[in-house]
Amino acid sequence: MARATLNSFVEVQEALCNPNLRQNLYEDSDILMKDVLLTLHGEKHRRRRQSELKLFTRSITNDYENIIFSEFLNQMVSRAIEARDFDLVEFGYLATIQLTSDFAGVDREAKDEDTKKLIGIVKKFSEGATIAHSNRKKKAVRQNLKIAKDSFLKFLKPSWRRRKQLVEEFKKGRVKEEELPKDVLTVLLKNQTSLKLNDGDIEREVCFYLQAGSHSTANSLVHAANEILNWSTDTAVLARNPTLMQKCVHESLRLHPASPVAARKVIEPTLIGGRLFDIGDELELDLASANKDISIFGRDSNVFNPMRDIKHEKSQLFGLTFGAGVHLCAGRDLDGGIRNSNKQGSSIPQFGIITQILKSLFENGMKVHPEKISKKETQTSRDHWECFPVKIG
Ligand code: HEM
Known about the structure:
This protein is an alpha+beta fold and 393 residues long. The protein has a single domain (3-391), classed as CATH 1.10.630.10. Strand 5 and strand 6 (275-277) form a beta hairpin. The protein has 15 helices and 11 strands. It has a 4-stranded mixed β-sheet with strand order 1-7-4-2. The longest helix is centred in the middle third of the chain and has 34 residues, at 138-171. Helix 7 packs across helix 8, helix 8 (184-190) packs antiparallel against helix 9 and helix 9 crosses helix 15 (353-363). The model has no long low-confidence stretch (mean pLDDT 93). Helix content is 51%, strand content 9%. The structure holds protoporphyrin IX containing FE. Protoporphyrin IX containing FE (HEM) binds next to helix 5, helix 9 and helix 14. Residues 16, 23, 37-38, 49, 100, 103, 209, 212-213, 216-217, 220, 258-259, 262, 321-323, 327, 329-331, 334-335 line the site of protoporphyrin IX containing FE.
């Protein structure tokens, strides 16, 4: 068995799209990641993905961004203005826990303590899912993950019960399809028999969705805010140009991929970039390096430059941050929006949740806190923010 690291854009993209490689980053995180969408392979993955991706069509993500989330964001920004100074990392988690619980299918009362509890759980899920990159003792991370999952399952019970009843009523013809909630839990309960899922499979999928979207979105939001605050001389003017704001967010996503590497195992002998790999070989796909490949992103690839010209028809400004191929991120359009969204024929453009949050905060005068200091996390090899104090208003 050989190990290799791929770091050119073309090779990493080719590997992500190669059906002879399977997911290999989550072997130590079975409590959470066993047989979830991201770790399934082949036909089982295709069928699960086909069912769940109906929740992420452009019309649903557009309505979500411009109607449901926008109302919630206005409330959050009003509260931030009242508070005057706040931590952007915490703000990011509050905003994205709303987003991911809506898509995962977790009902919550609008109580702050419930939300805080759920955020604490999701942070433990994230560390457990990315145990490969944690600097803490693996045994302790796994124990924390188990405690967090048990406490989440109690939290999930009422949401599960409500959806199960609705699905039963739907099957008896008493509830119409369009009256069912549009979330992963409902989709899986509705298709439980055809997808051959036991309750444990469904529980893990809901946990996975909660963490897949929250941590990556919250952290990417803070990276983008930091890059913009360093780059722009007038963020209030920038906020009036959402197309440029979206480019800034995409450029920051390129420089700070939530997962700096992906990992795959070879299941059939295969060629990548002209090199032959054999069954059992393990490949590290260095997304962070691929995103700085100068042949694609230019000589200044390690600098924040949202106006850059990309020299590859198959790349977007955010590079491979959302992955590629069959496991391409389901939340890409939700968080990143649609490129050239003004030209897509829709009357309401879709700039993405991250751009919308930053636009709203910059319109209201968000600035780096003049006295408090921002900090990065130290318990992970990932580039994560622990706190990012700001002022607004
Ligand atoms: C900035 C935010 C995000 C980033 C950078 C990101 C990144 C990624 C990446 C790199 C993958 C593929 C990993 C691999 O191939 O090994 C992925 C998969 C996935 N992401 Fe995201 N993600 C983000 C937000 C979200 C959100 C908001 C959701 C859902 C609400 C989501 C749901 C998923 C799902 C379900 C998959 C698995 C797809 C599959 O295996 O078929 N992500 N994400």
